[in-house]
Amino acid sequence: MPNLDIDNTFKRTSNTYRLVVMNDDTFDEVVAFRISRRSVYLGISISFILLVGLTIGLIAFTPLKYYIPGYGTKESRTSLQLLKIRTDSLEKAIQFKDQYLQNIKKVLSEGNLQALDTTSFKVPEQNQNND
After folding, report:
1. What is the chain's pLDDT, residue by residue, as a tens digit (131 residues)?
2. Residue 111 in 3-state DSSP?
3. What pLDDT sits at residue 112?
4. How many CA atoms lie within 13 A of 41 on its CB side?
5. Angle at 16 between CA 12 and CA 20, to 5 degrees
6. Cβ-contact 28, 35 below 8 angstroms
7. CA distances from 114 to 72, 105, 111, 119 (A)
8. pTM of the entire predicted model
9. CB 32 within 8 A of CB 46
10. With 70 labelled, which of 16, 79, 92, 130 sits at a CA distance of 20 to 30 A?
11. Is residue 19 within 8 Å of 32, Cβ to Cβ?
12. Are residues 13 and 37 in contact, defined by beta-carbon separation less than 8 angstroms?
């Protein structure tokens, strides 16, 4: 594996080249550019950053953001929260009613209703000393 000379690599990025655009029929020069590898890299990097920035700005500051799945409008988010609250309260109410009905079924299914013991309890009287 050949050794890469770092100084040589940096020198190659600063070498200048000439880019010529010519007319194919007349071979006249239309435009000529002096470029280097560094300037091409910088140009591509800056154009990429600008393209990403413009895309983010276009989505963030225009109504295009409403077409992003899961974003929605503020009104739809608030109505969704209200629906969640209502759903939770309805689930709790149904759970309480189911529990109530199960208790009633349990009481009714127990066929052996025993007569309540109505004998009186003998409660010991407390001594009240009124001395």
Report:
1. 466 666 777 778 888 899 999 999 998 999 999 999 899 999 999 999 999 999 999 998 998 888 888 777 778 888 989 999 999 999 999 999 999 999 888 888 775 555 555 566 676 777 766 55
2. coil
3. 52
4. 7
5. 135
6. no
7. 62, 17, 9, 14
8. 0.49
9. no
10. 92
11. yes
12. yes
Taking the C-alpha atoms of residue 107 and residue 99, their distance in angstroms, rounded to an integer, is 12
Beta bridge partners of 20: 32
Query: Distance between CA atoms of 63 and 75, rounded to whole angstroms?
Result: 15
Distance CA 2, CA 119 (A): 108
What element of type H or E holds 17? strand 16-22
Residue 6 confidence (pLDDT): 66
Q: Tokens for 32?
A: 């000529």
Contact assessment for residue 38 and residue 31, using Cβ atoms and an 8 Å cutoff? no
d(CA 48, CA 41): 11
Q: Which residues contact 22 (CB under 8 A, 6 or more apart)?
A: 28, 29, 30
**Residue 3 token pair:** 């050794």
